[in-house]
Amino acid sequence: MDCLFCKIVNGDIPSKKVLENDKVLVFHDIQPAAPVHVLVIPKKHIASMNDVQGEDYELIGEIHKAAQEAAAQLGIAESGYRLINNCGRDGEQTVHHLHYHVLGGARLGALTGISNSHA
Ligand code: 5GP
Ligand code: ZN
């Protein structure tokens, strides 16, 4: 399958890994939007939040656990962080393999909603 994050899981594309187990992988985002910006992905290919079903829901727990562990490992657990999933066009999802962003290391500001860039 021609999927960027599957290639990262398989090691065909290198990544800066933070942690890994048999279910999930956490690695640094190539274009960080905050001092700490990592991506948490299931090793299983799931295209988006809309495609999570059945036993996949257990993976969502694994993803939260890995995000929590990565935050501690990266020293942002106390200061706080944001866990984000972008889904579909309006969510500005660009990579169609389920992933959660963990952003931290600075005050992130209030959540912003509509951007004018696609208006
Ligand atoms: P999305 O916009 O789909 O929620 O997030 C995709 C994220 O993947 C973006 O933050 C982007 O910087 C990151 N990304 C895209 N290509 C690569 C890559 O080859 N390696 C890594 N580490 N991150 C990537
Ligand atoms: Zn994939």
Order of helices and strands: HEEEHEE
Apparent shape: globular
The side-by-side strand order for the widest beta sheet comes to 1-2-3-5-4
Output the CATH homologous superfamily: HIT-like
Over all CA atoms, what is the radius of gyration?
14 Å
- Indicate the CATH class: Alpha Beta
Question: Looking at CATH, which topology would you report?
Answer: HIT family, subunit A
Number of strands: 5
Small ligands present: guanosine-5'-monophosphate, zinc ion
Mean pLDDT over all positions? 96
The helicity comes to 10-25%
Secondary structure elements and pairings:
Layout: H1 4-10, E1 17-20, E2 24-28, E3 36-42, H2 56-73, E4 81-84, E5 100-104
Antiparallel strand pairs: 1-2, 2-3, 3-5, 4-5
The chain binds guanosine-5'-monophosphate and zinc ion.
Zinc ion binds at residues 3, 5-6, 45, 97.
Describe this structure in words.
The chain is built from 2 helices and 5 strands; from the N terminus they run H-E-E-E-H-E-E. With 119 residues, the protein is of the alpha+beta class. The chain has a single domain (4-114), classed as HIT-like (HIT family, subunit A, 2-Layer Sandwich), CATH 3.30.428. The protein has a 5-stranded antiparallel β-sheet, with helices on one face. The protein is globular, with a radius of gyration of 14 Å. Bound molecules: guanosine-5'-monophosphate and zinc ion (ZN).
